[in-house]
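User: Predict structure, ligand inosinic acid.
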Amino acid sequence: MRTIDEQGYHFEEWLTPEAIAKDVQQVADIISADYKEKEPLFVVVLNGAFVFASDLLRALKDVRCEVTFIRVSSYYGMRTTGQLQFIVPLQQVVENRDVVIVEDIVDTGLTIHQLKAHLRGLGASSVKVATMLFKPEKLEYDDAKPDYIGHEISEEFVIGYGLDFDGFERNLDAIYKVKE
Ligand code: IMP
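Assistant: Predicted complex:
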């Protein structure tokens, strides 16, 4: 089993590249079926979702779509401000569009809760969420429950495949779980 040591923590490989590819294809097939007759706009949440989004969008079949990027933060240091900060704001008109937010992981759901409200406020016809990972036990906002999920995980901290530890390890090809 592959392992990574980062800042004094020990991580073990949890989802291999092959397992990730299977999860991504499953999500892509469901999205392809749901959006065949539509022209969705995928809104990729930077930085973490860039790896998942790249694989997911290329695995779609017969979906005419657009993709754009956004970078948001609800946190100032360790505290939530309760308000979204747009570090990279939305560049695309979302009015009357079927939007699919692409996230790396949904944890408390605060980011998705606020982003959904923002996109609806801008007139999106529909807003759904696709995420590689979902921590159901940590969810605090009902409306942030993702519509398309690669894999569920309990409360452990994970890195790799876009997910970082203080900005590092996003480029790992697998997802690694921290070991106590
Ligand atoms: P939420 O707003 O609480 O749902 O937080 C979502 C964000 O928290 C994700 O986009 C990640 O940046 C970060 N996050 C949550 N859990 C993890 C983890 O296990 N590893 C790395 N980042 C995480």
